[in-house]
Amino acid sequence: MNNKTYAGIEDQYSKLDNSKIVLIPVPYDGTSTWQKGADKGPEAFLNASENMELYDIETETEVYKQGVFLAEAVTENKSPELMVDAVHKEVKKYIKKNKFVTTFGGEHSISIGTIRAFNECFDSLTVLQLDAHADLRKSYQGSKCNHACALYEASQSTNLIQVGIRSMDVIETTVMDKDKTYFAHEMAEDDNWMDSAIDQMTDDVYITIDLDAFDPSIMPSTGTPEPGGLLWFETLEFLRQVFEEKNVVGFDIVELCPNPKEKSSDFLAAKLYYKMLTYKFLNEEVEDDYDSNFNDTVSGLNKFSKYNDDDDN
Predict the structure, then answer these.
(1) DSSP H or E segment with residue 108
(2) Between 49 and which of 7, 27, 73, 172 could a Cys-Cys bridge form, CB atoms 3.0 to 4.6 Å apart?
(3) Is the pTM of the predicted complex or chain greater than 0.85?
(4) Average pLDDT, stretch 21-50?
């Protein structure tokens, strides 16, 4: 990737010391099983961001002035397990620097590492998943770090809320908490699903968005499109409500599979990322210090002591 800064912003808003936000690209596509190309997602997203106007009409703000540091991409691809470890280490490093850490994939398996890092640093974490697929298989094709397993670990160790689900294997029904799962066909008939989902969240929320959560009519460029997905304004309404009522501690966006002949998906991903930052920092002045409120105590970080934790440097 040749991008020097996020969205081409000036140096004064892109240096690590001056930035409240960190963006980590993860161009990984090692376990996808249908359409390949998610490894090209971060570059397409960044290119679209450079052509996006940065004044948000809805909120009358310019969130990039909070500072967005574009970190080096995580390029480990020898195995999905090594990739997850590398993402985990990189994300946790920036959480400990008191940054609002965001990640852009790549396929959904990258989220295993991001969620693991946040779960180690925040007590009673809710993971909010927007997705067409449940991604709850314990292992798939010989790996626990397959994209089909992206949320299994979170289902066992966090308060997982799944939104937009409309495709899954029967084995996943043995893992899924249906009381915390909002199926697309039910959401279409339930005007209260947003409030219900938020009511089930703890205070600290991490958001993972697979872009196939959106209907393919507005997001065709993803590896596994499914009909019956979310539309733009209902998604923004839900996300803004989550950001207003909860402490969103970080997020990732995954599964952009860019098509050279179809650029609207790249721009949707770019706009979605920027809107989420806008909602997060809506009531913060640029001069205010950012406090991520992460837990650096032994008890907080011990929840996953079986994983390598030599990432303090």
Answers:
(1) none
(2) 7
(3) yes
(4) 89
Strands 181-183 and 21-26: unpaired
Q: How confident is the model at residue 307 (pLDDT cuts 50, 70, 90)?
A: very low
Distance CA 274, CA 50 (A): 12
- Above pLDDT 90, what percent of the chain? 85
pLDDT at 33 over 90: no
Mean pLDDT of the chain: 92
Query: What integer is the mean pLDDT of 155-176?
Result: 97
Q: Look up tokens 């993402």; give the residue.
A: 87
- CA–CA separation, 125 vs 99, rounded Å? 17
How does pLDDT run across 207-263, given as a tens digit for each residue?
999 999 999 999 999 999 999 999 999 999 999 999 999 999 999 999 999 999 999
Nearest residue to 257 via CA among 163, 147, 183, 169: 147
> Which strand (E) or helix (H) includes residue 103?
strand 100-105
Of residues 72, 77, 140, the one with CA closest to residue 110: 77
Rounded to the nearest 5 degrees, what angle is found at the Cα of 254, between the Cα atoms of 136 and 24? 120
Cβ neighbours for 88, distance < 8 A, ≥ 6 positions apart: 112, 113, 114, 116, 117, 307, 311
Q: Which alpha helices (H) appear in the chain, and where do they start and end? A: 41-50, 80-95, 110-121, 152-157, 184-187, 193-199, 232-245, 264-280, 298-301
What is residue 2's predicted lDDT score, i.e. its pLDDT?
73
3-state secondary structure 189-225: CCCCHHHHHHHCCCCEEEEEEEHHHECCCCCCCECCC
DSSP state of 39: G
Phi and psi for 255 in degrees, rounded to 5?
A: 75, 30
Tell me how far apart the alpha carbons of residues 58 and 177 are, in angstroms, rounded to a whole number: 35
Q: Which amino acid is at 198?
A: I
